[in-house]
Design a protein that fits this description.
Layout lengths: L3 E7 L2 E9 L5 E9 L13 H8 L9 H10 L3 E6 L3 E9 L3 H13 L5 H18 L3 H13 L13 H6 L2 H11 L5 E7 L3 H12 L21 E5 L4 E9 L9 H13 L5 H9 L6 E7 L4 E10 L3 H18 L3 H14 L7 H14 L5 H11 L2 H9 L8 E6 L4
Parallel strand pairs: 2-6, 7-11
Antiparallel strand pairs: 1-2, 3-5, 3-6, 4-5, 8-10, 8-11, 9-10
């Protein structure tokens, strides 16, 4: 059964939810998404605060400490996870149909009364600091972070989602409570509900979970403008490889009606792996890297194309130049008929794999909701791809000369 967009009234407010019923197995999957409560939220005023709030959800509630919380979930075969993006935070719960009352209560308690004890906060702080220290040893991570600092300077995105060692020390129960009370609010909520559950049961679940939360206010992420001129940062460390990360602005809104063309274009340019234009030019023809990828990141705050590769230190300048040359040729001459047909066949043929689970189908539906489309618009998008002509795609590609505004972050060793 395909998903449907529904709504439920809570305190005279219409809360949207997406429902896909499947009664074959007595399992229910529910995700509560709080839009505007992500990394770019104005309430994420300490770098890493939003991520800290996400992680603190693993510590249980005021009623159940971390050990009791874990035991409760295990005893009732309930699984809870959370996710943080630039624009939202989500909490997902997975349970047997017979445990719906237990799942309802634990999620309500978690959103209303998370465990903010000093012991829990210190434990999460220790875990996050350990992650930061580990990441700071990874050269790929450092190169990517340097790119963020370069192009997102003076915005929340210049910091890692985890925050920094200094910023994590500043986080306490007070600012966690402030962030959570402004994040988990009714006006930011949307539910994704799938599995063995009826519409009536779905609405009762949402009412019970949300009705005691603050009403709050919706929040849209502010627009982040990417640099108009290319930037570059080179960091030197002891390494036998050169790490190259690159980024260019993409003049495309999150709900651009021509997004389906970009799906094809980026697949051909760099996201498809072996067979992509970048891979063929840089690895196969030139032998400058084992792999190279490029992909799009399109959201309400900013849109861009990002990519990366590793190469021998001696080949660093050649590889960097070839990235630019390959993108330039792609914009000037477009795609070949063989690339075009292969990309269409792959995207259309692999589409069923994107819909294998209820959770993936609900996220696809949410993506369309986020864009302001009908939640089943992906079907129309597939028809648009199927009927797309190569001439139309190449005109589209040629109009995106902004992709040549490439900024680079490079980590390499100093030449001896």
């Amino acid at each position: 059964m395909s998903a449907s967009l529904e709504s439920v009234l809570i305190h005279d407010l219409s809360v949207p939810y997406i429902l896909e019923k499947n009664h074959q197995i007595p399992i229910v999957s529910i995700s509560m998404i709080f839009q505007g409560a992500g990394i770019l939220s104005k309430n994420n005023y300490v770098p890493g605060l939003a991520n800290f709030a996400k992680e603190i959800l693993n510590e249980g509630t005021e009623k159940l400490n971390s050990e009791e919380f874990a035991k409760f979930l295990d005893d009732n075969a309930i699984s809870i996870s959370s996710k943080l993006t630039k624009t939202f935070i989500s909490i997902s719960i997975f349970f047997l149909k017979e445990k719906i009352n237990e799942a309802t209560q634990i999620l309500q308690d978690l959103l209303l009364q998370p465990n903010l004890s000093i012991d829990s906060i210190n434990r999460v702080r220790k875990i996050i600091k350990s992650d930061i220290l580990t990441n700071n040893l990874e050269l790929d991570y450092i190169t990517n972070l340097n790119l963020k600092k370069l192009v997102f300077k003076n915005t929340p995105l210049e910091f890692p989602a985890t925050g920094t060692l200094d910023s994590i020390e500043k986080i306490n129960a007070e600012n966690l409570r402030f962030f959570i009370s402004n994040a988990f609010v009714i006006k930011k909520a949307i539910g994704l509900i799938g599995g063995d559950i009826s519409k009536k049961e779905s609405e009762l679940f949402l009412k019970n979970v949300l009705e005691k939360l603050p009403v709050g206010e919706p929040e849209e992420p502010h627009l982040i403008l990417l640099p108009e001129r290319p930037l570059e940062k080179i960091e030197y460390k002891k390494t036998k490889q050169a790490y190259i990360y690159f980024l260019s602005p993409l003049n495309m809104s999150f709900n651009d009606p021509e997004y389906y063309k970009m799906r094809l274009a980026i697949f051909i340019l760099g996201s498809s792996g072996f067979g992509s234009r970048l891979m063929e030019k840089i690895r196969v023809e030139s032998g400058l890297a084992y792999s190279v990828y490029a992909y799009t990141s399109i959201s309400k705050c900013c849109s861009m194309i990002k990519g990366y590769l590793q190469t021998n230190i001696q080949n660093m300048h050649k590889a960097k130049a070839l990235i630019y040359e390959t993108i330039y040729d792609f914009l000037e001459n477009g795609v070949t008929l063989q690339e075009f047909e292969d990309a269409k066949n792959y995207i259309l043929g692999s589409e069923p794999l994107r819909h294998e689970t209820v959770e993936s189908r609900l996220m696809i539906a949410f993506d369309q909701f986020y864009k302001g489309n009908d939640i089943n618009f992906y079907k129309e998008e597939l028809n648009l791809i199927k009927n797309l002509k190569i001439e139309s795609l190449n005109r589209f590609i040629s109009n995106h000369k902004e992709l040549l505004k490439l900024s680079f972050s490079i980590l390499t060793a100093k030449e001896s």
